[in-house]
Amino acid sequence: MSAFAIGTTEFVIVGLIPGMARDLSVSIPTAGLLVSLYALSITLGAPTVTALTGRLPRRPLAITLMLIFTLGNLIAAFAPGYDMLLAGRIVTGIAHGVFFSIGATVATSLVDKSRSSQAVALMFAGLTVAMVVGVPFGAFVGQHWGWRAPFLVVAALGAISVAGLMAWLPKAIPHTPPTGLISQLGLLGKPRLLAMYLVTTFGFGSSFVVFTYLSPLMTGVTHVSEETVSLALMLFGVATVIGNLFGGRLADRIGSEPALRIVLIGLIVSLAALPLTASHAIGIFVNLFVWGIFAFAISPIMQAGVVKTAAIEAPDAVGTASGFNIAAFNLGISGASFIGGVLVNGPGVITTPWAAIALVALALLIVEWLLRQRRLSLRTA
User: Do 241 and 131 meet the contact criterion of CB atoms below 8 Å apart?
Assistant: First the structure.
């Protein structure tokens, strides 16, 4: 429930940006900053606050984080203006980042080791369901009852989550305090790990140059209603589920770097098709589905690849390395959505796919470097 609420509140704004911009008397790119700065709050807040709270008991920390998350959504729902709304989003983003930093370890500590993967998968299933159901339903609610309504719904989900955590989390949850923030940053000095994080930032983040402004793209270029955008978000959500499964299986079969090469090329092709399909409703729906598959196939490949690389280069800090990859995902979302806002404010929303392609191309160049390094290491071995 917590993961579902968190996933919904992060991306529900994508379907609400035009209405929020009108109501708050701001530009569409300014409204888009509600996505950019939320993701940036996760990127900066998660490792910092996680390190500062590393020695606190897990149960009260998890409950407090969901209380803060709920409060942040209430601030957003009742914000009198844009500035207060942005403040609520930043508060919510920090709580989101820290909750997921501790969530996986808490989930695994509650079950037998043989069921630890199932426990983590069940928690993260909330994010998947949010993309398929929560985000499009939230957009639908916002389009019919105003953009504040989805934040109230998410706040209610947050309150239910708090009650569930208070009822079922045991008082004593074993955990190993993480290392200090400075020692964690040392991982960024390892070239292969840093390269993987850059692939995550550019490759996964690239789609959010376009996705953040999908609603103005479809209403202004495809000329469909805002209600139709909700259906598009649902279709995209289904594609993300398929993409996650596809990416994981492909990486298992041929390895992380070769799988990334295939997925990134597919992402470039699907993004390049968007300017051509954007003026046709059926065409853009098909394009969205294909794009969603390739965009979210990156996630499991990168997460598995980072864990595998860290096991070789930093075996005592695999968990921290994985956490930095989550930060890289959100850094990519933040930077890409900011770039999208600049383009929407300048040459127009139809140019956003080309900037996304440029970011994917950077990621592909880094993957080619990783493949070359692997070939060289095999020769020297």
Answer: yes
